[in-house]
Specification:
This protein is mainly α. It has three domains: 2-51, no CATH class; 61-157, DNA polymerase, domain 1, CATH 1.10.150.130; 173-345, hpI Integrase, Chain A. Helix content is 51%, strand content 11%. The strands form three sheets. Strands 1-2-3 form a three-stranded antiparallel sheet, covered by helices on one side. A three-stranded antiparallel sheet has the order 4-5-8, with no helix packed on it. Strands 6-7 form a two-stranded antiparallel ribbon.
C-alpha cells in the first residue's frame, strides 16, 4: 500500500496491490483525495471488500452481493431488489461495519420504517414492510453462508409486516361489469382488462402476449413469457416461476373480444405483442375507467385477485385455482386466498344437511 501527495496539485493518491478472496492479485490506483486520511480510508475499504473481510461496510458488502446475484437473478428482479435496498436499507446501514450490525440495529431500522407516514398520514403497507424485511434477512443469510458472519441479526430482531394484507382489494362481478362498460371507448384498455379479469394473468404476462399465444379455435391462451421495461429497454423474460408457464382456457366472451381487437391491429405478425405498451399505460387506462365508472380504485394486480375471488364464488377448487393462476405451490394459493373460502361454510353446512337427510 502506498499513499503519496502530488506536489503540483496538492492532492493525495493511493496505490494498492492486494490478493482478493480467490487468490488473484488486484492492483488499484485512485487519485484526487483532498486529505491523506481520505486516501487511507479508501485503502481500508478497498482491502476489506477485495479480501471479503467482515470488517467491510455494509455498503461495500452489498455491492459484492449484487455482483454475485447478477449471475443468478433475472435483470428485472435484480433491478427491483437493488432499487429497494438502495432506497430503504443502505441509507441506514451503509456506513456500519457488517460484523458490527446487531439485532438492536435491525430493530431501530424496523421502527424507523413502521413509524413512517407520508404527507397524507398513511404508513407503508404491511406487505411492503414484510417484503423489505425479507430482503434484509436474505442479505444477512448470504453473509452467514458465504462470508463467515457468525449469525444473522435479523433472526433475533424478529419480523416486520405481514405476508398478506388483512383486507384484500378486488372487484365484485358487478363492479367489474360497471368498469368494463366504461372502457368501451378505449379498445386497447377494454381488451387488456377483459383478458386480465377472465384469466387472472399478471401484468407482465399480459403485456408479453403475442398473437400466436391465442388459440382461437380451442379457446385458450398460452402463458410462457413476461414483459418488463428496464432502463428504457423492453425485455421479454421467462415468467415468474416454472409453474407460471401454463395454458388457460378462456370463455367465449373473451375469445370474441380478442378476435375483434386483434383483427383491427394493422398487419400484426404472429410473434408480435398484441398489447405493445407498458405498465404505466395500464395504470393510466385504469385511472380513466375508474373515474368514468365510479368504481373503487384498485391496483392493476388486484384484477388478478378479482379473478380468483370470482372463481372462489363459483366454487372452483383450490387446486384448479392454483393451476390457473400459475402458483408454484398449492400452499401459495391457500395462503393468498384461503380467507375467502370461509364465506362458503354456511353453504357446506347446508349441503351436509341435505346429504344426510336423503
Amino acid at each position: 500500500m502506498s499513499v503519496t501527495k502530488d506536489g503540483n496539485t496538492g492532492r493525495w493518491m493511493s496505490q494498492i496491490r492486494v490478493k482478493d478472496w480467490t487468490g488473484k492479485t488486484v492492483h488499484k490506483k485512485k487519485r484526487g483525495f483532498a486529505t491523506k486520511r481520505e486516501a487511507l480510508q479508501w485503502e481500508q475499504e478497498f482491502v476489506s471488500q477485495a479480501t471479503s473481510s467482515l470488517g467491510m461496510t455494509f455498503r461495500d458488502f452489498i455491492e459484492l452481493y449484487f455482483k454475485d446475484m447478477e449471475q443468478r437473478l433475472k435483470a428485472t428482479t435484480l433491478a427491483n431488489k437493488r432499487w429497494m435496498v438502495n432506497l430503504k436499507v443502505t441509507p441506514f446501514f451503509g456506513k456500519m461495519q457488517l460484523n458490527d450490525i446487531k439485532p438492536t440495529d435491525i430493530r431501530r431500522w424496523q421502527n424507523e420504517l413502521t413509524s413512517y407516514r407520508n404527507k397524507d398520514g398513511e404508513p407503508y403497507s404491511e406487505t411492503y414492510l414484510k417484503t423489505i424485511n425479507n430482503q434484509v434477512t436474505a442479505i444477512f443469510n448470504y453473509a452467514v453462508k458465504y462470508y463467515g458472519l457468525k449469525e444473522n441479526p435479523c433472526h433475533k430482531a424478529g419480523g416486520m409486516g405481514k405476508k398478506h394484507a388483512d383486507e384484500m382489494m378486488f372487484w365484485t362481478k358487478d363492479e367489474f361489469l360497471q368498469f368494463i362498460e366504461a372502457m368501451k371507448d378505449h379498445p386497447t384498455g377494454y381488451a387488456a382488462f377483459m383478458t386480465m379479469y377472465y384469466t387472472g394473468v399478471r401484468e407482465g404476462e399480459l403485456l408479453a402476449l403475442t398473437l400466436s399465444d391465442i388459440d382461437f379455435e380451442n379457446s385458450t391462451i398460452r402463458i410462457n413469457k413476461s414483459y418488463q421495461r428496464l432502463n428504457g429497454e423492453d425485455l421479454i423474460t421467462s415468467p415468474k416461476t416454472p409453474k407460471s408457464k401454463r395454458i388457460i382456457t378462456i370463455p367465449e366472451s373473451l375469445i370474441n373480444c380478442l378476435k375483434d381487437y386483434t383483427s383491427k391491429l394493422y398487419n400484426i405478425q404472429p410473434d408480435e405483442r398484441i398489447f405493445p405498451h407498458t405498465k404505466y399505460y395500464l395504470a393510466h387506462e385504469m385511472d380513466y375507467g375508474c373515474e368514468k365508472s365510479g368504481v373503487k380504485k384498485i391496483r392493476i394486480h388486484d384484477i388478478r385477485h378479482s379473478h380468483a375471488a370470482a372463481l372462489i364464488e363459483m366454487n372452483v377448487a383450490p387446486k384448479l385455482l392454483q393451476e390457473r393462476l400459475g402458483h408454484e405451490r398449492i400452499q401459495t394459493t391457500l395462503d393468498t386466498y384461503g380467507h375467502l373460502y370461509p364465506n362458503k361454510q354456511a353453504e357446506v353446512a347446508k349441503q351436509l344437511d341435505e346429504f344426510m337427510s336423503n
